[in-house]
Amino acid sequence: MDKWWQQSTFYEIYMPSFKDGNGDGMGDFKGITSKLDYLQDLGIDGLWLTPFYPSPKVDNGYDISDYYSIGPEYGTLADFELFIQEAHKRELKVIADLVLNHTSTEHPWFQESKSSKNHSKRDWYIWRDQPNNWESFFGGSAWEYDQATEQYYYHAFAKEQVDLNWSNPEVKAAMFDVMKFWLEKGVDGFRLDVINFLKVNGQFINNPYDDEKQEQIHLYDKDQEGILPMIEEIAAFVHQFPNKFLVGEVGSEDLTILKKYSGLDKLDVVFNFNIGSMAEFETKQLYQQLVATEQAYDDAQIPTLFFSSHDMSRHLSRFGGDTDHAKLVAAFMLTAKGVPFIYYGDEIGMQDWVTDDISKMKDVQGMIAYQLALEAGKSQAEALVMANEKSRDKSRTPMQWNSQANVGFSDGTSTWITIPEAGCNVTVENQQDDSGSMLTFYKELLQLRKRYSCLRQGEYEFLRYDEGVIYFARNDSTERIVVVLNFSDQPKTIEDCFTSDVKMLLSTKRKPVECDDYRTIFAHEALILKEVTNR
Ligand code: GLC
Ligand code: CA
C-alpha cells in the first residue's frame, strides 16, 4: 500500500454549485480556491471536479466543445493554475473529470466530421446509412439523422453528445494529447466518464428487449470486445506520469463487469455501483454486496465507497431523510475498506430538491423523460412525476454555506434552482461550531481515518451481519479497530468480538463514560472502538 490514492478520501465538487467567487451566481475556480481551507479542515485528501471545460452545457459540461481550456463561466486558465497550486500547498490532490467517449456536437472535430462524407475526420465519429435499434441512455433512439450528408450519427446520451469512434487510431491519439495536456498542468489524475462505452459492437447488432421490464437490454453498445485492451493502453499512458490516478465510471451494478476494469494494468479503481446505488437502504443487501466484492476482487483491486453523486439522489433523502441513518452511512463509508468519495453537501446533510414546475428543470435526462412521457400520451402532471424521477437536478443545488445560499444560482440563461426551504438551516455556518452536527461528525470520522492506518489500509479481520447490524474489525500491524453499525431501530447485542480491553473512539449515541457495555448497541448507533493493547 504505497500509493497516495489508497490512503485518500475524495470529495466530489459539482462545478456550477460549489462556490461562486465573482458574484454572478455560478460556481467557479475563484470560489473553490476560497474554500480550500474549509476542505482541508474537513479532512479530505483529494478533489474530483466535474467537467470545467468550455461546453454548451446541454448535459452540464459532459458535452465538451474544447478540451484545452476552461469554460469562461468557471474562470481562466490562470485561475485554474492558481487553484491547483493552492490545493497542492494544502496537500489536496485534484482529479479532473474527463469525457473521452463523446464530444459536444459543437466541437470543431464534429463540425468537420459532419461537413462532408469525404472529410478526413468523417470517421472520427460513428456514421451509418441506417440506424439500428439502439436506444440512448437518456431515452429515445441513439441515432440522429443529418440532412446534409444523409446519414445518421450515433449518440449514447443526448443527441448533442456525439460518440467518438474509438476504433480510429487518430481519435485515440487526439485524446492522449488531451490527457497529457492536463497532467502537465498538474492534475493528479482523471475520473473517466462512461469509460466502458468506448467500444460498440462492430456489426451493430440490434439490442435485445427485456419484456418484463419493458426496456432495452444494452448488450451491444457497451463493454464490447476490444474495450479492455483500450483501457490498458489508457492506463499505461497515464501511469507513465508518476503518481497519477485513474478512477473509472463503469455504469454497472454487476460485479463481474466492474471487476474487469480495475487492477494493476488497468484503472486504479472503478465506482462500485453495486454498493453505492441501492435505491432503498437494505442493511443485509449492503452487507452481501460487501462480502461479494471482497470475494470477487483480487489483492490488487480496491473498492470505492460512495452513496451520492451528481447522477443520483442524495443518500440522506434517498434512504428516508433520517439524519441518524445518514450518520451511520457516513460512518460506514469512512471506516470500511475502500476509497471513499464524499459528495459535496452530504457532510452537512443537504437534501434533494424536486421541482413542481417543469420550466425550472435543468437536467437533460429529466427533460427528455418529460417529452417522451407526453409523446406517450401522459398528462402534464404525470409527465412531471416521471421527469422528476429521472432528473438529476435533485442533488445539484448550491452548496449551503450560509442561509443566503438560498438566493439561487444562474447559469447565464435561466435562474438556477434554490435550495429547499426545509434545508435553509442546513448550512456550514450553522454546523461548524456545533458538536452534534453532521459536519462535526464527518470531521471526526475523517480525523480517525487519518490517524489510524488500519482504517485506510487494514484488511477485514471479520465482517459480520446480524439483524440490521453490520460490524467488522479492521487491523494492520499497528492496531485493531472494531466498527459496529446498528442500522435497526432496536438496541442489539452483538457477538463478543474484542480480544482485550477497548477504548471508544466515536459513538453517535453515548459519551465515553456513560456506558461501557459495548456489546449492547443502541438503536441507530454507530460505534467505533479501538483495542487498548498495543500490537
Ligand atoms: C456520466 C456522467 C453523467 C453524464 C453521462 C454522459 O454518467 O456522470 O452526468 O450525463 O456520463 O456524459
Ligand atoms: Ca461565478
Task: Please give a structural write-up.
With 535 residues, this protein is of the alpha/beta class. The protein folds into four domains: 10-104 and 169-351 and 425-431, Glycosidases (TIM Barrel), CATH 3.20.20; 108-161, Oligo-1,6-glucosidase, domain 2, CATH 3.90.400; 352-424, no CATH class; 457-532, Immunoglobulin-like (Sandwich), CATH 2.60.40.1180. It has helices at residues 29-34, 36-42, 77-89, 108-115, 169-184, 227-239, 255-260, 273-276, 283-296, 315-318, 323-335, 364-375, 380-390, 428-431, 438-451, 453-457, and strands at residues 10-13, 46-49, 93-98, 102-104, 127-128, 143-146, 151-154, 161-163, 189-192, 209-210, 215-216, 245-248, 269-270, 304-305, 339-343, 459-466, 469-475, 480-486, 492-493, 502-507, 520-521, 526-531. An eight-stranded parallel β-sheet has the order 13-12-9-3-2-1-15-14, with helices on one face. A five-stranded antiparallel β-sheet has the order 16-17-18-22-20. A three-stranded antiparallel β-sheet has the order 5-7-6, with no helix packed on it. The longest helix has 16 residues, at 169-184. The model is unreliable at 406-410 and 412-418 (pLDDT under 50). The protein binds alpha-D-glucopyranose (GLC) and calcium ion (CA). Calcium ion (CA) binds at residues 20-22, 24, 26, 28. GO terms for molecular function: hydrolase activity, acting on glycosyl bonds. Pfam families: Alpha-amylase. Residues 12-396 form the Glycosyl hydrolase family 13 catalytic domain.
